[in-house]
Design a protein that fits this description.
Layout lengths: L2 H15 L9 H20 L6 H17 L7 H18 L11 H18 L8 H25 L2 H25 L6 H18 L6
């Protein structure tokens, strides 16, 4: 990520987060800068190369669709959930390009399986019945993606692979924060916590591709 693109991405992310009522309270900023931040991260991936590139770009495209859907948090929740489920499946495929699924490092899947089970145990009572199947499917895909990213890093033992693994972990943290805010109890400055970890995750995954263009 070059300095100009990194600076533009950071500024766009800050303006999107500042749209929240506890900050500037200008909702219009979110509608402009939330999608723009993800588009800028897509440019990071576009300028890079490697066997994961196509699938990472597909995941970012699905994420952009999810970002737009979630601009309407209630009406767009299920479409957004489905869009991000597709994104995680794309990232999962990307992370299997250089490391075998599951067999690369089973311990990573055990770890994220425990994390996912613990999160579901806490959040399940607050998840409405119609959303339980989609939420369960989403959590399984999210945990699988993060686990495969970690497994790939343990197999390749390369700095860029560890960056992708960090991205997977940050995605789990971001979605856990979002889920707690929605299904458990409102979090102070939730948009700051959720969006900061979300874009950090996406930036890590995009910049984990080898430099190219």
């Amino acid at each position: 990520m070059n300095a100009v693109l990194a600076g533009a991405t950071l500024l766009s992310a800050v303006l999107a987060i500042a749209a929240a009522p506890w900050a500037l309270g200008v909702p219009g900023l979110l509608f402009v800068f939330k999608p723009l931040t993800t588009v800028l991260i897509m440019l990071v991936a576009w300028r890079r190369t490697g066997p994961m590139r196509t699938w990472v770009l597909a995941g970012l495209t699905a994420s952009l669709a999810g970002d737009v859907a979630l601009l309407w948090p209630d009406r767009g929740f299920v479409p957004g959930l489905l869009a991000f489920l597709v994104a995680h499946l794309c990232y999962l495929v990307a992370f299997t390009r250089e490391a075998r699924f599951v067999k690369a490092a089973p311990a990573a899947f055990i770890f994220y399986g425990v994390v996912a089970a613990a999160l579901l145990a806490v959040l399940w009572p607050g998840v409405p019945a119609p959303l339980r199947v989609p939420v369960l499917a989403y959590v399984v895909c999210l945990a699988g993606m993060a686990a495969q990213a970690a497994a790939r890093a343990r197999t390749l033992r390369a700095p860029l692979a560890w960056r992708a693994a960090l991205g997977g972990g940050l995605f789990v943290a971001s979605d856990a924060l979002l889920a707690f805010d929605r299904f458990n109890a409102p979090l102070p400055a939730a948009s700051l916590l959720v969006l900061a970890t979300y874009w950090a995750a996406q930036a890590c995954i995009a910049s984990a591709l080898p430099p190219g263009r």
